Sequence to fold (368 residues):
Amino acid sequence: MSKPALAVSLLDELQTALAHGTVARRVETLRRVTDLFLDNAVPCTDELLAMFDDVFECLVVHMESAARIMLAERLAPVDSAPPRIVRTLAFDDLIEVAGPMLSQSRRLDEDALIENARTKSQRHLLAISLRKLLSGAVTEALVERGDAEVVRSTASNPGAEFSEKGYTTLLSRAEHDDAIATCVGLRPSIPRHHYLQLVARASASVRKRLEAAHPHYANEVSHAVAEVTRRAREAPAGVPPQSSIAHGLVRSLFEDGRLDEAEVSAFAEAGKFDETNAALAFLANVPVIVAETMMIESRNEGIFVLSKVAGFSWVTVKAIIRLRGRLSGGVLSATDVDRDLYERLRLSTAQQVLRFHRMQQATAQLPA
Fold:
């Protein structure tokens, strides 16, 4: 009997099994239908694929969990699996059924994964976090709704992409979970500005816990955490290649005499943190690390000081503040009060503040 003819025969058998057969007979029919589908000798046209989808859908309605688990495990690695049964199994409440589909099946599109992450259990989210590739939209859903285990798993996945919003949520979760902070910090592709924010937030959290546990060592703890933070910022792993390239570009512009306020404003408006930060550093005559430290502060005073020494107008300062606001989840904005503070800030005062920061940096670089 040819394969297509065998499929038709199995459909007839299916009708009989569903109407009069025992559970064992229905399971055996499911096994045979699965074998037939997985046999590459069957030409899987759209019509035949739809037929298999109908057969599987009919069968799983009447199947116990063991049979659904078997079907999910066998179909999950198959790229051409019938799409409707893939979705049905992926949204099964039983994680043993849904898990293989969520973690492996390439038949599930982004919308289905996001819907699953927003509506199903934490174990479903954990299964999704294990996929080889995760888009930024899917990881957003995972880190927003997932528990600590889900977030750690997602952050540790080398195939996961993160949007700006996703990274902002990760940093928020990392602030209260050292394990999450470690997973995020070890990601080789983490943008420089998010890495610096992570270091700053994590070190503050560590300082608070250590000082509470050992109040008589408060000063020593503060110095220790500051040293760890300094080393983390200066570590080669903390400066990804794209940041180094951006810094080199800005250095070339500066050395050629082409780096001016208009360039900085353009960098800020385009959302380019590395370029904006490096440009501020060169024009204010401070190390890039010093400018980075002042740029990631929760308040705007650091930007005011750097911009005043660089001689920027309020329009450019406002663009830089908006850039920081976008990168930090929209929590920063430029107000009339900010403008008044910036305009009243004296150049001599700003220069004195920068001298203090330079001295701090020089002291931190001395050998212990």
Notes: The CA atoms of residues 3 and 39 lie 9 Å apart. The chain has four domains: 1-96, 109-190, 191-239, 241-364.
